[in-house]
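Render this sequence as a predicted structure.
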Amino acid sequence: MPKPVTNGADTSKEWKAVQSDLNALKTDVTKLTQKFQNDITETAKTKTAEAKAYGKEKIENVESRVQARPLASMAIAFGAGLVLSSVLLKGKRNNG
């Protein structure tokens, strides 16, 4: 089967069209990447602000409970410390 005959002008036009398409694709990908990066940054900022607000709310909640019942809070903290030290020391004795 004979090969199609093309002249240099047709090939040059096709090459320029391919280059143009590639440049357009590069521009589109760059814009999409930038938008994606902006969206991620904005979402991260929003979630960080939400987490900070949630943490602050919980800390204030604990502070108000401690102020309302200081003796009970100290007893709970002491008990938690005893349990934690017991668990840690038991683990140390079993491993050592």
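Summary. The longest helix spans residues 8-68. The chain has two helices and no strands.
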